[in-house]
Amino acid sequence: MSRPQLSVKWQLDAALLSRPVDLTSLVSISLTNPEAFLEDDVLHRMVKVLLNEQDERRSNHNTKRDVLAILAAIAKDPRQRVKDEVKMVLQGVSEWFDEYLQADPVGGVDRDGMPLEPEMHKAMLLVLARTYDYALKTEDLLDLTEGNRGVALVTVVALLEDGETYATGLTQRRRAGENGGVAQWERKLIVEPYERPMILQLCRLLRGFTHPAAYFNAPGHSPTGASGA
Q1: Neighbouring residues of 84: CB distance < 8 A, sequence distance ≥ 6
Q2: Where are the beta strands (DSSP E) in 103-194?
Q3: Contact at 8 Å (CB) between 132 and 223?
């Protein structure tokens, strides 16, 4: 007899006990069963208690990036009711997180010698592009980066270079009781290439930097009503 599936709410409650909060299993679920996140106010809770959380001991950079990765996976669903739900969730993002986003390091290299990319901006751009049906304009991207054209350009180019989303999933190697042993789990890399509309969206955003409007228009409008590239 198969065991009952643990709800996403239950798994989020369990994850909230860790320090910092580890959302690895929830990111994996969002790629295979995004519908499960639309129940029990799970998305609203993640934004309120993790994305907006200032205490790095509870919600660090990786935790916040995982929240955005989950939102991006769910926003990929083409149904309008799903996108409307994500829009509602995004309204709960605090001003503090907006400031945190602008502090996202870019340029130079990390301790391992790897180039620093604006990972939070990349994650948020994926969320917004999918939520707004791949209709963002370059002015919207500049609005996201508060007019910082360098960060905006690096964000788009980095996403195009990535071309796919990486996540760490958990798979069960052995069930409890099998061959008299305990359950065994292992981590595996999940790779999802960007969908064609996303690639086209990124190309349009990049092309927008060849237009004078990208250098003279001031940011400050919502993604739904932009004009330009």
Answers
A1: none
A2: 164-174, 184-193
A3: yes
Q: Which are the contacts of 34, defined by CB distance < 8 A and separation ≥ 6? A: 73, 74, 76, 77, 82
CA distance 47 to 38: 13
Residue 170's closest CA among 27, 49, 71, 9? 27
Write the pLDDT tens digit of every residue in 166-195: 766 666 666 655 666 665 666 677 778 999
- Category of 40 on φ-ψ map: left (φ > 0), alpha (ψ -120 to 50) or beta: left
Beta bridge partners of 184: 174
Backbone angles phi, psi at 225, to 5 degrees: -130, 30
Q: Is the pTM of the predicted complex or chain greater than 0.85? A: no
